[in-house]
Design a protein that fits this description.
The chain is built from 8 helices and 15 strands. It is an alpha/beta fold and 272 residues long. The strands form 3 sheets. Strands 2-3-4-5-6-7-10 form a 7-stranded mixed beta sheet. A hairpin with a 4-residue loop joins strand 13 (193-196) and strand 14. The longest helix has 21 residues, at 2-22. The chain is globular and about 50 Å long.
């Protein structure tokens, strides 16, 4: 059933048109091959920004959504996409009033959310993640998206998180508490929801995909039951006014997250 669910979600997430474009790749690809397969242009990638609260922004580009906290303590980001677009990310942060990236929190280990570590770590950015995510980054491995496999190389020491946690931790930054929580294995075995308490906002990484159906990395310990539990636990600590930043897709609210949970349960029950 795990493989069936993974295949079903991959088809639903990518869609028939994207499947036709990407084809099916049995061999693991590098980033250039993957970009070509999915029609990504890393050189001309456009990074757009959206202000969601005072001092809190979201950047959209190639890869996962990036939350950006800017204030008197500096710049903290959640996820960092790819090193090939880091100069564009830094330029976008500069345009909204930020400077050097002081902290980068990775919601999980996948390349489109955390491979920017390879550009930030050598510059002195402090990287934070769940302990399992760090272990996966250190080991590397195949990210099996069913229609394509990406060979994620082990991260060098300077690109690895220097602070990790198991259940939860707090960062006091820019006049607010930022909570990191892991409720269960979900999208992977090392997911983090980042809670910006001062802004009543959460960044959920790929546990919540608001651009279609999710990809569940069962090879990395993910499961649909874990996805459902993680989302429900996040809803339990949120309010109807909470700003919800998904791993992909537009910023939204808890009502949309609730409908996403219903969809997950429906798909699970139909496939079971």
């Amino acid at each position: 059933m795990r493989t069936i669910l993974q295949a079903v979600f991959a088809v639903l997430l990518i869609g028939s048109a994207e499947l036709a474009k990407a084809g099916h790749h049995e061999d693991a690809l590098n980033i250039e091959q993957l970009a070509q397969a999915f029609g990504w242009d890393l050189e001309s990638a456009d990074i757009q920004s959206q202000k969601v609260a005072d001092g809190l922004y979201v950047l959209f580009g190639i890869g996962g959504n990036i939350a950006v906290s800017i204030g008197e303590d500096g710049v903290l980001i959640v996820d960092d996409q790819l090193p090939q677009v880091m100069d564009k990310i830094e330029a976008a942060i500069s345009k909204i009033g930020g400077g050097k990236i002081d902290y980068a929190i990775n919601t999980h280990w996948h390349f489109d959310h955390a491979e920017g570590n390879n550009a930030l770590g050598p510059k002195g950015t402090t990287i934070v993640a769940h302990s399992n995510a760090r272990a996966d980054m250190q080991q590397g491995g195949i990210v099996n998206m069913v229609v394509a496999k990406y060979n994620q190389q082990p991260y060098p020491k300077e690109a690895l998180p220097v602070f990790t946690y198991d259940k939860g931790m707090q960062i006091h930054f820019n006049q607010g508490e930022i909570d990191l929580r892991n409720f269960s294995s979900a999208h992977t075995n090392g997911d983090t929801v980042v809670i910006f308490k001062a802004h009543n906002a959460v960044h959920m990484g790929d546990v919540f995909n608001n651009a279609g159906y999710p990809f569940i990395d069962v090879d990395s310990g993910g499961s649909i039951d874990g996805m459902i539990n993680f989302c429900e636990q996040t809803l339990n600590i949120s309010t109807e006014d909470t700003i919800v930043i998904p791993g992909h897709g537009p910023v939204t609210n808890t009502a949309t997250l609730g409908r996403y949970v219903t969809m997950l349960k429906t798909v699970r029950d139909r496939v079971a």
